[in-house]
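Hey, quick one: can you model this chain's 3D structure?
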Amino acid sequence: MAADLSHLPEDWERALAVVAHPDDLEYGVAAAVARWTAAGKDVRYALVTSGEAGIATMPPAETGPLREAEQRASAAVVGVTHVEFLGFADGYLMADLDLRRSLAACIRRNRPEAVLSINYRDSFGGGSWNHVDHRNVGRALIDAVRDAANPWMFPELAADGLEAWGGVRFIAFGGSPEATHAVDVTGHLEAGFASLGAHAVYLASLSGPMADPEAFLRPNAEADGQRLGVQHAVSFEVVFA
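Sure thing. Here's the predicted structure for all 241 residues.
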């Protein structure tokens, strides 16, 4: 069967990955990040929350710092040293002006050519229902890319030295049921396993395939690889800026 996904453009030097929670990038996208950092690209992470509501048996005041530490360790596995946390409350995210302003500021600070995230659609497919934070971050992020490029949006950011940045070429959302593109991660999948595995305390709170990095990631990478015509791939829905 002919491949039905296009290769994601890779003629860029800097990407900014923006997601709601620690671990969001590691359920697929991190393997692509490993490919890019190995090629010398500058990939940076921004986490909208610290994932403090993510472990039911641990209070948020303990969970947040622990998950930040796990995220920094996870990022280091795939060659990412720049990790910032935007300080919003886990589980309460709204695609409102406050979030758009913060994301626009983050984009202006980091000046990426590519922006990465995860699925913002209502579902991951089938009967699933996507987390409210994933949905709202993705929708706000698309608007924030435009806001970051418009000098008349959030003029207070320019007063703080964050001038408009219109250099984002596209936003790529990993794990979308509406995938259009993919990245060949053959040879980098094991780094993806290790990056997810760095979220050890969080994974210990889960059950089923999502608690096992290889059991979750390998079948998805093989399926996406078949769609791209390679051994292993990570798929993305691409919105061009």
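One thing worth noting: The chain has eight helices and eight strands.
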